[in-house]
User: What shape does this take?
Amino acid sequence: MNTEAHTAAINLPTSARRSGPLQIGGRTLSDNAIAAAAACALAFLYVPILVLIVFSFNDNPVTTLPLRGFTLDWYVRALSNEDMLTAVWNSIFVASFAVTLCLLVGLPSAFAMDRYDFPGKSLFRRFALLPITLPGIITGIAMLNMFRAMGMELSLWTVILGHGTALTAVVITQIYARLQRFNRRLEEASSDLGAKPWQTFFYVTLPNIRSAIIGTSLLSFTLSFDEIPVTFFLTGRDNTLPMYIYSTIRRGITPEVNAIGTLIVVASLCLILFSIYLLYSEENE
Amino acid sequence: MNHRQRHRVRLLGVVSGPAAWMLAFLFVPYAVMFTYSFYSRQFPMMIPDFQFGNYLSLLTDPQYYKVLLRTLKISALVSILSVLLAYPLTYFIVFKIKSGRTRTFLYFAVIVPLWVSYLLRAYTWKTILGSEGVLNSFLIWIGVLDEPADLFLYSQFAMVIVLTYIYIPFLVMPVYTSLEKIPQNLVEASKDLGVRPFETFLKITLPLSVPGILAGMTFTFCLTMGDFVAPFLVGGPDGMMIANVVQVQFGTAFNWPLGSALSMVMLAIVLIIISASDKFERAGRLDLA
Amino acid sequence: MSNIVELNNLTRRFGTLTAVDNVNLTVSEGEFITLLGPSGCGKTTTLRMIGGFEFPDSGRVFLDGHDVTDLPPYDRPVNMVFQDYALFPHMSVADNVGYGLRIAGVTRADIAQRVKDALRMVDLESKAQNRPSQLSTGQKQRIALARALIRQPKVLLLDEPLSALDLKLREAMQVELKHLHQKLGITFVMVTHDQLEALVMSDRIVVMHDGALIQEGTPTELYEHPATPYVANFIGTSNLIIATVAETTADFIVGSFGNARLKASSNGSKPPQGNKITLCVRPEKVRLLADGQSVPDGFNVLNGRATEQFFHGNAARIAADIGADAPFLVDMQLGAALGKSQLPGEGMQVRLAIHPENVTVFVEGD
Assistant: This one.
């Protein structure tokens, strides 16, 4: 969906700073009211996801209460759906190349921003972060216009270029944050011990930001998988998974979508939690 | 080669690739879009031209400016509602939870759904709000309704619900950061001076969390403006937003110049709001360091 | 003995701040030289320019006769021990120490042997497979040393190597480093803000202030013959009294302040009468006269009133009001000859005897 907020989320404020809650008084009426409001909001956030999961197992083609029986039918149908499986494969294909592109452009960008001062640096920074400050549709349409002007046909490759453009900013923000925390003295020590710059980069710098790179790659991969606005305008004949679901939903609701949805939810959750773990494991180094 | 030259060579090596990429994919596309927005259209082609007709139609044709106004209205509604729901939740997590681990857990419990397919989460509201959906069957079951109500789905109401749902986590994040930054001793000092909790909240906590609220609302507003999925899913005939209009121009209507012009307008509005929000935040920024 | 390090007119600016101001220095081979000064005096920047981590805006750096001013650190025959040790967190201790050899292309077997020897030299063989995060601060420092020395550099640079250690450990390491220097015979260039450390360890000390070199010499020279009041009070403690010239003779300069006069052995200069001078007396060179004790021949005597007492365990310091702007400090060793109870209490009259040779005169402009 939108990547700036995603990247902001990854930069978790360290709650470890606080030792305890602010005591503004004992447990009062307002305390209970706040807790109730919080609970409602949290429930509001999770009810749809629960609905998705519950109804994917419900033996009823219509998603309505009361629940009928338990069935794995929808999963079976979803997993044997040729078109859907092709779409999944396309998404994996796109995501892999898109992430590679992001790393190739994002890593040097992050290094440039962290270590050098050069004329036009703030313009560079603004452009780099542009795709995550704007709604995806604008990026998508702008690139569509460009491809049209170039006479280029839409295909998975244009989608890859679109994702690369949209998601590079994620890599830049994450890697830049990690580089800021990196102890530059380590590189000086390496240089002092005789290592040339490329040796220092491979033997000292890279190993120390490795988990940030992996974490950010996983994050970008997941974001690419779910990308809609940019993809919508750059898709040719081959669909990515979101595009496939989009067209399926247009035709009507089938619980198959619930099944696919649940699978995606579970897979995304795992990937996200793992990447968060990686991005934070270096906090304590 | 002295160190200054070495430095320059290294800089060039690092910056040239990304700079070229940015030129190609972040500057050129917008330049092209900008150019196209002035073209005229002769179905089914577009002709190079320099005319403001596309922009003018946005101002004069009710079909377009009504949708734009509707979009602004809905974006504003969503931003406000999201804040109203997100703020107590965030306040609760930051101030009422004792254990640091629980706090981190709850924070992520709120954030993680963000990464789980926007399309799917928005889609489930279709199943919930539909005439045969969960909400209706629930209300019938407990006796509030006799027959399913049609108004839940395919309306602006549904869109606002769905979008608010999507954006609550987007607001929790900056507000969380803002609230966390408030030094503990400020609130304690206030308490020391005998100020009642609610007043402390109004006079200290709330003002200090304004940067976070502002950032979150700006985000939400700008992104909602560009959203076409929610209208498509649950908007119904009344619910088209400007992004859908743009979508159509590049689709069946095949009016690229108009579509480009509308996109440029969207871009302009978003950029204006972002810089206004930036200036506002900077003006009211307190250095808590 | 040749000059292993030579700094010519070295200047380094950061924006409007001149961090190193026209510094000239030569270091002889095998010396242990210390750059001493408070934070921000330019000592670390100077050290980093020797190592190649900073480049001067003007001036040249010579190592063993070669102009290395433009060379990066990996092309210079020096190695540095960083203030925070900069041990590679993702490598074991053994890999850290052997890193320089690995870069140089030494064979695996050789590396293993030399790493072992290096670890033995710093007494940390058992920690070879540990990670730096598992070491104590003192251990980290020794590994950083081993890592730098294994490459047999011509000059070892040390950036405040002991500042992170607590007192007892620091004192032990001061001695160890000195022994290491004597054993290895290579040149050590150290940076510190701790003057005691500099006095203990160095063959020569260079005092810096605001980017400039103020005085250089052996510890004794700096202590006994400081060139400026700044040096006099930075190295050890000094009583600094602003006075005016009362009279000058062939052998003495007499300064007067308040109701008192102090005679100082002449240093050859003849400041005109009435000029402002600064008189400098080290607290331990002052003799506290007991009641009734006569003033020794040729000594100055100052009358004052004790205001405070500071107990230092084996020593004591008295602050007395003698009519100058600041309290006059007197240091005394406690022990068999003098006990704490014999010290003058607050408010008591004291008589202080000082030999003119122990009074240094600084004229205006020092």
